[in-house]
Fold:
Amino acid sequence: MKIVVRGTNWIGDAVMSVPALRELRRLFPDAHIALHTRSWAEGIFRDADFLDEIIAIEKKSSDLSTVLGQVRTLDKRKFDLAVIFPNSYRSAAIAKLARVPRRFGYAKEGRRLLLTDPIRVPKWKNERHESYYYLSLIAEVANRVLGPSAKISDDASPLIDLSEKRRQNGSERLRAAGCADGRPTIAMGVGSTNSMAKRWPASNFAVLADMLIDNGFDVVLMGSPEERGVSADLSALAKGKLIDLTGTTSLAEAVEILGAVDLFISNDMGLAHVAAAVGTPTLAIFGPTNPLTTRPLPETAEIIREPVECSPCMLRECPIDHRCMTRISPQRVFESAVRLLS
Structure:
């Protein structure tokens, strides 16, 4: 059997889909499993033993020519079954036009007729972690293809295999950037590309960075090119010297660096999921979003959250005083970081 999985569109979601992909491999050990996903995701799945192939989707995936190119690519490979993680109409249409005989996906966005096996969205969708949403889809595949006797694992903790070579690459990049041998290194993700309300104030991050530097840590800033501005603001506010790698690495390089640092502290962002999944202690600051459904799940991760009356609101801009974030003090985060490191 040849199975194609349409991957997710965000870094955090890609990590949260790992348990489902592992389970798909366990259920179909002899199948050829391909992940049809954004080109950046290769940096996450490069060492994955549960995949046989990664089919990259280039950045301009909404262009008609690019969509038709995806259709031709899948059609040529003659897949037997498609599992579609995104809820979009386009992702289901591509599998349909590529003539994949069995197409599994959630019945959302008016795409029921594009799927041979439309799956009802679970009633618990907003009450359990997002990893279970993807696992539930794989459970339906197992039930309908292998029969009701197929047993599904309930392990939703995403773990990413990172080779020792890639961890060494991360260490070398840190040294080249100015991190000293023998000094513990803490990376920070101070932005958030899709929500300003997710951001703990840059002034708080600056105070925290100075506390860490004063206690013998190197502090590295990480993020996408869109987050350079907030990292620059933090660097200007901090008294100590920060190593700013924001926007200078590919996702593959960022994964390697996160596998080499001693601790990652960030807002609710994709890199927090990556760091925890590669085994790095991770401290994620949550405000407007719901940790029940989207927190990093591995045991290496902890969250800091102030339970104010209006959170989680899921808003991208705070209409009042951003109390869910401003009430979290740098001292509180610092003490949690020291405890995690010890």
The CA atoms of residues 36 and 55 lie 5 Å apart. The two ends are 48 Å apart (CA to CA). The chain has a mean pLDDT of 95. DSSP finds 14 helices and twelve strands in the chain.
